[in-house]
Amino acid sequence: xxxxxxxxxxxxxxxxxxxxxxxxxxxxxxxxxxxxxxxxxxxxxxxxxxxxxxxxxxxxxxxxxxxxxxxxxxxxxxxxxxxxxxxxxxxxxxxxxxxxxxxxxxxxxxxxxxxxxxxxxxxxxxxxxxxxxxxxxxxxxxxxxxxxxxxxxxxxxxxxxxxxxxxxxxxxxxxxxxxxxxxxxxxxxxxxxxxxxxxxxxxxxxxxxxxxxxxxxxxxxxxxxxxxxxxxxxxxxxxxxxxxxxxxxxxxxxxxxxxxxxxxxxxxxxxxxxxxxxxxxxxxxxxxxxxxxxxxxxxxxxxxxxxxxxxxxxxxxxxxxxxxxxxxxxxxxxxxxxxxxxxxxxxxxxxxxxxxxxxxxxxxxxxxxxx
Amino acid sequence: xxxxxxxxxxxxxxxxxxxxxxxxxxxxxxxxxxxxxxxxxxxxxxxxxxxxxxxxxxxxxxxxxxxxxxxxxxxxxxxxxxxxxxxxxxxxxxxxxxxxxxxxxxxxxxxxxxxxxxxxxxxxxxxxxxxxxxxxxxxxxxxxxxxxxxxxxxxxxxxxxxxxxxxxxxxxxxxxxxxxxxxxxxxxxxxxxxxxxxxxxxxxxxxxxxxxxxxxxxxxxxxxxxxxxxxxxxxxxxxxxxxxxxxxxxxxxxxxxxxxxxxxxxxxxxxxxxxxxxxxxxxxxxxxxxxxxxxxxxxxxxxxxxxxxxxxxxxxxxxxxxxxxxxxxxxxxxxxxxxxxxxxxxxxxxxxxxxxxxxxxxxxxxxxxxxxxxxxxxxxxxxxxxxxxxxxxxxxxxxxxxxxxx
Lengths: 371, 406
Fold this sequence. Notes:
The structure holds 2 protein chains of 2 kinds.
Chain A: H1 5-22, H2 25-31, H3 40-48, H4 68-81, H5 87-101, H6 104-116, E1 121-124, E2 140-143, E3 149-159, E4 166-173, E5 176-183, E6 189-194, E7 203-216, H7 222-258, E8 260-261, E9 264-265, H8 270-298, H9 304-330, H10 341-354, H11 358-368
Parallel strand pairs in A: 1-4
Antiparallel strand pairs in A: 2-3, 3-7, 4-5, 5-7, 6-7, 8-9
Chain B: H1 3-19, E1 21-22, H2 46-65, H3 84-94, E2 97-98, H4 103-120, H5 123-134, E3 140-143, E4 159-163, E5 166-173, E6 184-190, E7 201-207, E8 213-218, E9 227-238, E10 242-243, H6 249-264, H7 271-275, H8 278-287, H9 294-322, H10 330-353, H11 369-379, H12 386-397
Parallel strand pairs in B: 3-6
Antiparallel strand pairs in B: 1-2, 4-5, 5-9, 6-7, 7-10, 8-9
Helix pairs in contact in B: 1-3, 4-5, 4-6, 9-10, 10-11
Domain Acyl-CoA dehydrogenase/oxidase N-terminal (chain A): 9-117
Cofactor (chain A): FAD
Family (chain A): Belongs to the acyl-CoA dehydrogenase family.
């Protein structure tokens, strides 16, 4: 399904209204020091009232069958509100990994629960190095003789890794990197929270000791699956980033209009004015890059992989720039704990480096362009 | 697309099939083959320049005879009476064909001066000049900037004094593109030095062959002379060549400038497309054995991210226009990025080429980039400096307080 411009506007305003009530700054600050790092009641409401987890899940698996364009609108709003919720890990990473695996049975088993909001999920790929390159994975899985597998190894930087009901884990078999499903309560699984630069996004270190696991997709197909997931997830992340960057720009412009020094609003000084204009330019580019990539994905365009790499790089840069300049425009007040500017700074830096950072995504773009 | 748009596109295609060949892909590159010119401004010798202008006039005449000369213009002045969407559709179809470059006519004259004449001129002037312009007979220029009025355009000092049914103009204009080819120029003049500066300006259409109009080429840093200085000495202009009210010329200027922003932001073809094309830049890196240099690759990636994101921005603005909507600040952002992207590309390529861009080794596709390199400073100035564009974005889009102005 595809929403038209009016549909997208309505979606945006209903999500924004919901988040203004359910995820104001006070709520974000409370949750980032709580365990779990989200409010289960708000998560349930997001599923029941707005059907957010089901939005981009195909209808055959109990979802509403919309695409990345619609999902992008929701993610922009969530990025803007710094929503603390299992949405990104569950819907953008784990559900997309299930879909990309092409394993219809696994999709039918897990996606309806995700769509209904009852199941939260996480995707565990990176290990101690933080790399998402499946070739660098050392966690191993061996057949247990009964059709299931035994998975052993360590995973790091797993978003929502201590709370997710379902874990999708990339581990190496004789055939190569492969995707597995592991239940939260499986024997031999240990999860400990990691201290994170961005406290609004919980991360965990997972240890697997011969944990029972189900293969998802073909044995050895994990590399191909992950290539698809990284494209889709980086466009989802790009939407979150452009929403956050837009918020930083708006906050700066508002402050520049109202804060007076030397008897004038600081926004009348060209040095401040041009800083805000530079932020606007970056934000406009970021929105264009992320929205266009989402559109190309939904159209099944051959240009999507390049557009995904552009969106990831463009939005990472734009958000970091906007978050830094937002603090600068605010001056001393922007450096205080009480001001929300640092929350965006932390989210921007953490998002920029989540999938490896500039060195990785720049080479990915050149690779996609055949350079 | 609506049915009538599709019919129109088919009609355009039929016309172009009958009059032109298909164009090769401007971004496709086979290293060492074809024209390696990277000239942004035309740097043709006078004879070739005249031929270039003649080809532009000829092609515009053929467009006009076939109903594509002025797609959005009213039928009474030789236009087709269709919408801006039809205009965009025609441009998109024509870009697939190898036709004469009509920039000398279209960028300033048909794109900016024509709409201004239509909005503000008196009937005699509209009848005399609009059909001539869109038929390719008359080239028009913009007599706006002066030595003392650049970014602060409203401080123009060229005087116009009324004598009976005529006005007498005296002053100097500068940075006037295509003046050397023009039959008419739209001049901003000071008619009331005592009024606040925006309210003492009057606009006139100046026939460029009028006694007292002198066009002198202005040689710019590229070495070529694409711009001019225009000296006006006791030039007599009849009152019916006045646009808008006496002292109401600022409104006229705003019409022109609004149309300028719509023209300047477009992505361009030829050397511009090549400079930002991943294929072209990658061919250059292979030819210079730098393709595996990590530092250069990182810069190439940064450059391409900005260039491709700008392309997405343009695509989305165009789609909004086609759907009948009004784009937001995309056009101003696009203009800023256009200058920045080409500047970054020219400096990136310079660093790839190394000494081969400071002295000509004769190798294909190397020293030729110096032409683009030397042109890029202009792209951050013309059509509104980067600084002015940022003021506009901050004030009009973000609502920041205005500069303190006198």
